[in-house]
Amino acid sequence: MIVYTIAGLAITLLADAFPPKRQLTVQVQRGASAHQRIELADRAILLDQALSAGWGRTDPAVLAYLERSLRVTHPDLDGYTLLRLAEDLGLHWNDTVVRSILVDRTQRLLENRELDMNPTDSVLQRHLDDHGARFIRPETATFSAAWFPLDSTGLRRARELMAYADKTTTPADLHQTGNHLPGLRPRQTMSLDKIGDRYGKTVSSAIASCPVLETCGPVESALGWFVVRVELRLPPHVPPLADIRNEVLGDWTRIQRQRNLERELEELRRRYRIVWEPTG
């Protein structure tokens, strides 16, 4: 019988010659939820798989961590001696960081098993069709604006601009009529939420309601007076696959990895018998 004593996760491995199932005794806090128990059991299984494969003594990340950690207290020892010391202390399986490294490595291995790294566009398009809400773009507007200080002179100038706004035909013309405001460019395309965050909710509301190709204002915000002209407004939409292929690929890959992990864990769970040891 081999006993792994881990803070919050004590594992007892009964290793017969060829047991039908490997038994793990896992400590669990009284009152733990079913979800918490599943997470503890899965972590114990992943750790046991890594230790059974001998990764505690061979994983490069583990060895580098152990050598780096022990060098703090044993600066005169060479790397080989430090790793021998780590093994004598049982750090290759009983150190918290080592366990996390091993669990993560096992999880990544299971996630990537039989993973298709080059799905076709038709596969990605189906994913986009099925999960379009994940890729929706908020309402955006292309607009130009003139800015004036928040005082009576600024308001007067904004009103004067509105009086002949129909003669201000280009974004540059409108922009140059106002004062300089850092970050305010002659022509910008932004989501309404971002416009509100940057220039104020009153400005974003005005841009949302202003008819396209018309000039609206003066609009008061905490920053000053604005006169805005909306060139284009796009409602919330899902871009075509060609525009967001990498984003869709990343999401598709993430889901495939989750499915792979769950499938592999389900198979591993059949090989183990979990015995719960209540604590606390």
Essential attributes:
single chain, 280 residues, alpha+beta, 4-stranded mixed sheet, 12 helices, 51% helix, elongated, disordered N terminus
Poorly predicted segments: 1-18
Strand content: 15-25%
Mean pLDDT: 89
Separation of the first and last Cα atoms: 25 Å
**Quick one: biggest sheet?**
4 strands, mixed
Shape: elongated
Overall radius of gyration: 31 Å
By secondary-structure content and strand pairing, the structural class works out as: alpha+beta
Instruction: Write down how many β-strands occur, each being a DSSP E stretch of 2 or more residues.
Output: 8
Architecture blueprint of SSEs:
Elements: E1 2-4, E2 11-14, E3 22-29, H1 34-52, H2 55-58, H3 60-73, H4 79-88, H5 91-94, H6 96-112, H7 121-130, E4 140-148, H8 152-163, H9 171-177, E5 188-191, H10 192-199, H11 201-209, E6 215-221, E7 224-234, H12 241-269, E8 272-279
Parallel strand pairs: 3-8
Antiparallel strand pairs: 1-2, 2-3, 4-5, 4-7, 6-7
Verbal overview:
Helix 1 crosses helix 6, helix 3 runs antiparallel to helix 6 (96-112) and helix 6 (96-112) packs across helix 12 (241-269). Helix content is 51%, strand content 19%. The model is unreliable at 1-18 (pLDDT under 50). It has twelve helices and eight strands. It is an alpha+beta fold and 280 residues long. The longest helix is centred in the C-terminal third of the chain and has 29 residues, at 241-269.
